[in-house]
Task: structure prediction
Amino acid sequence: MLLITGVTGFLGGAVLEKILTGGESLHLLLLARASDPEGGLERVRENMRKFNVPAEKLASLTVDNILIGDLSQPEDFLNDPRLEQVTHVINCAAVASFGNNPLIWKVNVEGTLALAHRMERVKTLQRFLHVGTAMSCTPEQNSLVAESAEFRENAEHLVEYTRSKSTIEQLMRQRCPDLPLLIARPSIVVGHTRHGCTPSSSIFWVFSMGLMLQKFMCSMEDRIDVVPVDYCADALLMLLGSNAHSGEVVHISAGEENSVRFGDIDMAMAQALEKAPVGDKYAQVSYETLVKMRRELKGIFGPCNERLMLKAMRLYGGFATLNVRFSNEKLISMGMPKPPRFTDYIARCVQTTQGLTIPEQMAVDFK
Ligand SMILES: NC(=O)c1ccc[n+]([C@@H]2O[C@H](COP(=O)([O-])OP(=O)(O)OC[C@H]3O[C@@H](n4cnc5c(N)ncnc54)[C@H](OP(=O)(O)O)[C@@H]3O)[C@@H](O)[C@H]2O)c1
Result:
C-alpha cells in the first residue's frame, strides 16, 4: 500500500495524476484534511480535476482510500490501523509558504517527525520518500550545487520555510535510524508541461511580475533552475522504486544544462504573448529602487496590496539573484531522462494564466 501525503497540493497532486492515469493499479492511502472521508475524497477529486484527470479515473478513488488527518495534530490519525499495511510513503505535505504562516514549524517539523516515527515502526515499510527542497541547503550565489546531507545549524535562511525543511531532514536522519528514508529535493517547480499553470500558478507570476515592471533584482544573464511538476512527479515515482541507500539525498532539478537565463524567459514569454521582448528596456535594480516605485504598482498590476507586492519582490528577488543551479547528475545516473527546459513549455503557462492578475496568481504562495 502506498501512502501519499499532500495530494490536495501541487506536487502530491501531480504524483496522484500520474498514478491514476498510468497503467499500474496501486493500493492507495491518501492523507487529506477534511472533517470526514467524503469531504476528503471530494477535495482530492477537486484537485485532480485541475490536472484534467477524466471522471472515470476519478471514480476509482473511494472513501476507503482516504485517511483524514492534519499534520498539526498527528496524534488524531497516527493510530489508524491501515498504516500497518503501508509499504511505501511519498511525503509531499508541508506548509510550502514564504509567508509567516504560524503552522510552518508545527507541520513541517513536528508533525512530519511524528509521522516518520510512526512509519518507522511499520514492519512492512520499504521506503519513506520525503520531499525536501533544494533551496534548504542555503546555496552560495553563482554556484552549481551538488547534493549534500550536511546540516548547518546557523545557516542564514531567506525564509522560515527553508529552515524548517532543512531541520526536518536532519531530525529524521538523527532520530529515525530505522526509517528507510530517501530524500528528494526538487529545485523550483513551475507549471505542468501539458496543463500549464492550471494545477497551480505557484512562482510563475514572479517572472511575469519582473517583466511587467521591466525591473527586478536579478540580471537578464542570471539563470534559474526550474522543472515542471509532471517531471517532478515522474522522478518521485522512479525514486520510490529505486534501491538508493537509506538517507540518500537526490536533487530533482534542471541542472547546468537545462537551467534557463532570465533573458531566455523574456524571449519565450514574449513569443507566447505575441509581443516584443522587454530586452534592453529591462533594468537590474536594488530592492530599495522597487520600494520607491510603490505608488506605481497599482497602475501596473491593478488593485493590489502594495506591502504584499513589495514583500513578494524582496523574498523572491532574494532567490532569483542567487543564480544557482542544482546538479541533476545523480538523478540522471539513476535512469531518469533529462528534464524539459522551462522555456519549452512556458507558452502553456502563459495561456493558462491569461486573464489572471499578478495578485490573483501569487495568492497561492502566500497562504
Ligand atoms: N513547489 C515548489 O516549487 C517546490 C520546490 C521544492 C520542494 N517543494 C516541496 O514539495 C512539497 C509540496 O509542495 P507543493 O508545492 O505541492 O505545496 P502545496 O501545493 O502548497 O501543497 C501542500 C500540500 O500539503 C498539505 N498540507 C499542508 N498542511 C498540512 C497539514 N497540516 N496536514 C496535512 N497536510 C497538510 C496541503 O493540504 P491542504 O490542501 O489541506 O492545505 C497540500 O496537499 C513540499 O514539501 C515542498 O517543500 C516544492
Summary: The chain has 15 helices and 15 strands. Residues 5-12, 31, 33, 70-72, 92-96, 107, 131, 133, 165, 186, 188-189, 200, 202-203 surround NAP (CB under 6 Å).
